[in-house]
Amino acid sequence: MFLRHAEKPGEAGPPLGVDRHGQNDPHSLSVQGWTRAGALAALFDSVPSERRPGLARPARVIATEPTHDYKSKRERDTATPTAHRLHVTIESDFTHKDAAAAATSILAADGDALVVWHHGSMPELLSHFPIRNSSDVPAQWPEDRFDLIWTLTRGTSDDYTFATVNQDLLADDVT
């Protein structure tokens, strides 16, 4: 399961980014983003469900790490409430430029994984998976959407089927 970080601060003004202590941090989530991160924790603690097929309780939570060039903490901020609630450690061995290595790690391990990744390189990450319906994978993550989950479901062989699941967690989410 792949998702973009939750809502971010405005480009030149409100909403502001805040860290987990409520202090101003332009590299962290907005208040709405923190709300979504908490709602995602509840969602992943309550799946699988008929309402959201393709979702599973993750055994692994992977989030990209900030770098000197890419300072965003939003992927890790988004993943933290889910990891805490499910009692798993966030794996943060990858930056958003390490798509091939992340895919190799995910494919090599057993169990379902939740990957919180930079939306700009999400399609590249998925390109490293054997996807039966790869033409259905969007060329880019929609810039204005924080409410989607891209899923890969293992088929009978070693390939996957791609699907999109609407989170439907917050009032403004598209259903």
Structure description:
With 175 residues, this protein is an alpha/beta fold. The protein contains four helices and six strands, in the order E-H-E-H-E-H-E-H-E-E. The strands form two sheets. It has a four-stranded parallel β-sheet with strand order 1-4-2-3, covered by helices on one side. The protein has a two-stranded antiparallel ribbon with strand order 5-6. Strand 2, helix 2 and strand 3 (90-91) form a beta-alpha-beta unit. The protein is globular and about 50 Å long. It starts with a strand and ends in a 9-residue tail after the last strand. The model has no long low-confidence stretch (mean pLDDT 93).
Helix content: 10-25%
In terms of quaternary structure, the protein is single chain
Say how many strands there are: 6
User: Strand order across the biggest sheet?
Assistant: 1-4-2-3
Mean pLDDT: 93
How large is the share of residues in beta strands? 15-25%
> Any low-confidence stretches, pLDDT <50, length ≥5?
none
State Rg. Answer: 15 Å
Q: Given the C-alpha coordinates, what overall shape results? A: globular
Number of helices: 4
Structural class: alpha/beta
Largest sheet: number of strands, sense, barrel closure: 4 strands, parallel
> Helices and strands, in N-to-C order?
EHEHEHEHEE
The termini sit apart by: 18 Å
